[in-house]
């Protein structure tokens, strides 16, 4: 075997070995991670998995509970119990560096309960009623159970990274159930019931901003 042939054989072998080793080595598994944060949807936790170098799938849960007194909605001061509970299935597409866009669906268990026991005069519609004319007022405000989500955020791809997310939940017009009792009878009660419906319309107008619920989140992710 000539020297030239020996060198050619060694060169082929040197190139073939790394290529064979690369072909046999397993591809890296998907990167997974967890996140914690606080947002306008409450306290939340995330689990995410990398699907490609730019695309991640993410599952999220959020919860928050808050009680308020003397909160003016419509023409009445209510006690308000807010219970924010939601989950989401999301996809994060990284465009450049930490910039990402997010889309997905939110399961929306958020709700508001309102009640009042008037001790002063109350105006429904165009009529002012004395506290003694009204018994109890109760209402419940729900939202579309499944709502689309769109957002934009900043999250570095390091092992530990802060996250800023801005988005909107397209949850539609709030669904309101509302009852008010009265000691009035006859035509006065009929008018009262009609005025209550005007109060419901006023509440819907006051809460119309919930149709596009803003989402602002700050958090921290850890890639495992």
Q: Can you walk me through this structure?
A:
- The protein is α+β, with helices and mostly antiparallel strands.
- It has one domain (about 30-224): Porin, CATH 2.40.160.
- The protein has 2 helices and 13 strands, in the order αββββββββββββαβ.
- It has helices at about 5-25, 185-205; strands at about 30-40, 40-50, 55-75, 75-95, 100-110, 110-115, 120-125, 125-130, 135-140, 145-155, 160-170, 175-180, 210-224.
- The radius of gyration is 29 Å and the shape is elongated.
- The protein starts with a helix and ends with a strand.
Keywords:
224 residues; alpha+beta; Porin; eight-stranded antiparallel beta barrel; 2 helices; 13 strands; elongated
Please bin the fraction of helical residues.
Answer: 10-25%
Count of separate structural domains: 1
Order of helices and strands: HEEEEEEEEEEEEHE
The CATH topology assignment is: Porin
Q: Unreliable segments (pLDDT under 50, ≥5 consecutive)?
A: 3-29
- Provide the gyration radius in Å: 29 Å
Mean residue pLDDT: 85
Main sheet attributes: strand count, strand direction, barrel closure: 8 strands, antiparallel, barrel
- In the CATH hierarchy, what is the class? Mainly Beta
**Strand runs, count:** 13
Structural class: alpha+beta
């Amino acid at each position: 075997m000539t020297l030239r042939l020996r060198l050619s054989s060694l060169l082929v072998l040197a190139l073939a070995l790394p290529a064979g080793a690369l072909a046999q080595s397993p591809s890296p598994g998907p990167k997974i991670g967890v996140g914690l944060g606080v947002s306008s949807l409450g306290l939340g936790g995330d689990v995410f998995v990398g699907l490609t170098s730019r695309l991640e799938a993410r599952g999220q849960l959020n919860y928050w509970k808050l009680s308020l007194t003397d909160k003016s909605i419509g023409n009445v001061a209510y006690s308000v119990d807010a219970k924010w509970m939601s989950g989401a299935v999301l996809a994060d597409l990284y465009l450049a560096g930490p910039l990402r866009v997010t889309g997905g669906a939110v399961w929306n268990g958020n709700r508001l309960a309102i009640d009042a026991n008037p001790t002063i005069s109350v105006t429904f519609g165009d009529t002012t009623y004395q506290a003694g004319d009204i018994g109890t007022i109760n209402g419940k405000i729900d939202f579309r159970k499944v709502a689309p989500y769109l957002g934009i955020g900043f999250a570095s791809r390091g092992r530990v990274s802060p996250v800023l997310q801005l988005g909107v939940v397209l949850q539609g017009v709030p669904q309101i159930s509302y009852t008010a009792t009265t000691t009035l009878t006859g035509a006065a009660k009929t008018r009262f019931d009609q005025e209550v419906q005007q109060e419901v319309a006023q509440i819907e107008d006051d809460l119309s901003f919930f149709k596009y619920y803003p989402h602002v989140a700050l958090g921290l992710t850890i890639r495992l």
